[in-house]
Amino acid sequence: MPVKLALAAALAALAAAQTAAQDLNDYPTVARADYVFGCMAANGNTRQALEHCACSIDHIASVLPYDRYVSAETVLRMRQLGGERTGVFRNAAEAKESVSNLRRAQAEADIICF
């Protein structure tokens, strides 16, 4: 009986560890790669830039859940467009907070990684 209980506890711990790892790595590879390519282009396309930029997106991913990252990126992209309809992305408190959270995560990443 104790062996079965120990096995069940080990399996439960393994499942919890896998769930925690998935929660920490919820950014798709394409999103991470897109960030790194843009970051590298802005920082000289060197091997050192690759290492710094990979560190940066890893830190951002550890601080900001992917859905909030996507929201902030969407707001930033929409702000680049002109017209009245995009005013909500410039003026809404929720949009401002979303971008602010991303900028804060990026600033932390810059301090840690660069």
Report on the architecture of this protein:
With 114 residues, the protein is an all-alpha fold. It has one domain.
Topology:
Elements (H helix, E strand, L loop, with lengths): L1 H23 L4 H14 L4 H17 L2 H14 L7 H5 L1 H21 L1
The rounded Rg comes to 19 Å
Structural class: mainly alpha
Number of strands: 0
**Largest sheet composition:** none
How would you state the average pLDDT, rounded?
A: 84
Distance between the termini: 54 Å
Work out the count of structural domains: 1
Low-pLDDT sequence parts: 16-22
Run of helices and strands: HHHHHH
Number of distinct helices = 6
- What would you call the shape? globular
Strand content: under 5%
Summarize the structure.
The protein has helices spanning 2-24, 29-42, 47-63, 66-79, 87-91, 93-113.
What descriptive keywords fit this protein?
0% strand; globular
